[in-house]
Task: inverse folding
């Protein structure tokens, strides 16, 4: 339908597009990984300030890294625009945005440090800065990724979907080396952003055999959802994934899940499973809430290491929408 359950709002500003450089990465702290070597400060000598940040599209950029890493690995394959055959066109990726921000950041960096900073690292840095823009933690991002050369719609068939059962969600995450805790933490990225009525229509009007709603929805919340998304209404209407603090990165999304206020089904299912329910509950109290930001950052860094290409693998794309040697 051209929409993703994870599509995020574009925040408008009179200043238009803003690219910020928040840190110089003057220190190098090696962090070893099985697929190669990423490290904090990878560009400290070759391109001292490669940290692009858009003030307009934080939630879009946060979701982009997830959708990139869960297919070919964190190699910028989601950025390649190769028509209907490309990864972007997969059902689970419809409605993603923020590509123009990455393209503009890449163009800026190419003028300063030609052929040095990969598109996949720009995606990872932009996701981190997007979290920070919405009151989340600012964390060190190991860099040194190289860009992949493959973008194939068929490779994106196993992206986690909004209607997946909790067991399927857990399985898909485990296949990528991510734990049940990572599943909860990365799902908590829904603390910012919106979804479309299309993605909750079944949950509201055809969840049970008799056409009933998902019983996990709080009875007081259900009429509000139906008012925004009436039966046979406009499926393109958007509503916040976190109706309480939709523009602030915080732990409220997990309280919503506990209280039956989850908007999309995949979030609600986190409270159906004993293991993921325990993780959700662990962050709701005061002590857990204080640990949430750091644990989320660690989950993002862990995800950012999925299938990375380093050393002589892949390439440093000249433009993010096309592999080198292919006319753009």
Result:
């Amino acid at each position: 339908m051209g929409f993703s359950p994870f599509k995020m709002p574009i925040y408008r500003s009179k200043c238009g597009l803003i690219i910020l450089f928040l840190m110089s990465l003057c220190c190098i702290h090696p962090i070893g990984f099985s697929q190669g070597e990423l490290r904090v400060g990878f560009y400290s000598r070759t391109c001292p300030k490669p940290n692009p940040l858009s003030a307009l599209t934080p939630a879009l950029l946060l979701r982009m890294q997830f959708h990139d890493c869960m297919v070919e690995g964190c190699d910028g394959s989601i950025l390649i625009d190769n028509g209907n055959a490309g990864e972007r066109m997969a059902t689970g990726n419809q409605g993603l945005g923020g590509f123009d921000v990455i393209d503009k950041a890449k163009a800026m960096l190419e003028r300063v440090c030609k052929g040095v900073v990969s598109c996949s690292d720009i995606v990872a840095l932009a996701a981190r800065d997007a979290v920070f823009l919405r009151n989340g933690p600012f964390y060190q991002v190991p860099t040194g990724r190289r860009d992949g050369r493959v973008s194939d719609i068929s490779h994106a068939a196993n992206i986690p979907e909004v209607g997946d059962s909790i067991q399927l969600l857990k399985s898909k995450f485990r296949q990528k080396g991510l734990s049940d805790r990572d599943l909860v933490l990365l799902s908590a990225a829904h603390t910012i952003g919106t979804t479309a009525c299309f993605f909750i229509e079944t949950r509201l009007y055809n969840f049970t055999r008799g056409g009933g709603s998902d019983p996990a929805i709080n009875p007081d919340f259900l009429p509000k959802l139906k008012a925004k998304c009436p039966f046979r209404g406009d499926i393109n209407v958007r509503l916040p994934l976190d109706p309480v603090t939709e523009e602030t990165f915080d732990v409220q999304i997990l309280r919503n899940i506990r209280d039956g206020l989850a908007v999309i089904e995949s979030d609600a299912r986190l409270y159906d499973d004993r293991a993921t329910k325990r993780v959700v509950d662990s962050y709701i109290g005061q002590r857990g809430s204080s640990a949430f930001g750091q644990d989320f950052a660690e989950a993002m860094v862990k995800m950012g290491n999925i299938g990375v290409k380093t050393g002589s693998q892949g390439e440093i794309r000249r433009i993010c929408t096309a592999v080198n040697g292919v006319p753009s």
Q: What stands out?
A: Residues 69 and 306 are 6 Å apart (CA to CA). The chain has a mean pLDDT of 84.
